[in-house]
Fold this protein.
Amino acid sequence: MSSHDESRFTADVYGVRLERAAELTRAAHLDALLITPGPDLQYLIGSRAQSFERLTCLVVPASGETPSVVIPKMELAALAGSAAGELGLQVIDWVDGVDPYALVKSVLNAGARTAVDDAMPALHLLPIADRLGRLPVSATPVLRELRMLKDPSEIDALRRAGAAIDRVHARMGEFLRAGRTEAEVAADITAAIIEEGHTHAAFVIVGSGPHGADPHHEVSDRIIEDGDVVVIDIGGPVQPGYFSDSTRTYVLGEPSEEVAAQFAELERAQAAAVAAVRPGVTAQSIDAAARDVLTAAEVGEYFVHRTGHGIGLSVHEEPYIVAGNDLVLEAGMAFSIEPGIYFSGRWGARIEDIVVVTADGCESMNKRPHGLTRL
Ligand code: ZN
Ligand code: ZN
Ligand code: ZN
């Protein structure tokens, strides 16, 4: 594999991750991790294999012995781009008619205590539990320790993702105009997300006018009108699979006094949360920093979701920036800060940046101005 290939990191990066995963598995008093295609498999061996009805499963023994990959013979090509070959993993391929779950069992000791990734379909989990005679537990508590702390190459990927989505927001005047439907605007944004360096658009939210008051509105055939406040929340992965996710709020023409005043409070809330980020504080204190500003401005009741979510190979992962999460932040953690205010049937607004915790604060991956942008 050439060093110019950006589809994954070099094999040594994955070698370190597999070793750490085995150590943490041991520390959790488990015997092995069982990982099917998804972000955990991508994290551990750089494989983009997809999940099908035929089982593909990485088995990482807690003992530190060589991991194995159980994989359908016809899917071997999907493994070729991963680090499995360079890492010397044991490949156990199988053809239709063979019981792949028995193959998983064959590399484990009797009565093995296993942990599985959250993305493992029940289709595979249930036969694995049956063959092992024991229900696996979730691997997330083991892997989140690893995946939450981004290394410099991952932070670099998040920086490239942030810059790419910033370039799309910078072009919003090309797409967002009165007289167009949300769906038309979204189609142009989707193309721009790819043009600016993402492998695809993972989500495009265009919430115009009253639709902006629904945080999970995607798009519709509503025609955007003069005076509309429009929430644009967009993102996708850049190589080797790290996500961007950024929201800006736009207004077509002049905002009303009410919109301008309440948006100014939202801007203060988002800035207060960003300013509160540093190692040693809790995740929930960041949520409180944003919420307190909005509560003081008497719009706290319109901020109806958590302040943020971790991001990396998944759009939503640990750590969650939410009341009740007393996780202590450490340098290298990456998450969104995205307070919003939603006035049902009228309008809504949200501001979202991805930040990475540094030694003494945080670095924002997104650099676009936060204010209500007039188009
Ligand atoms: Zn959401
Ligand atoms: Zn978002
Ligand atoms: Zn987000």
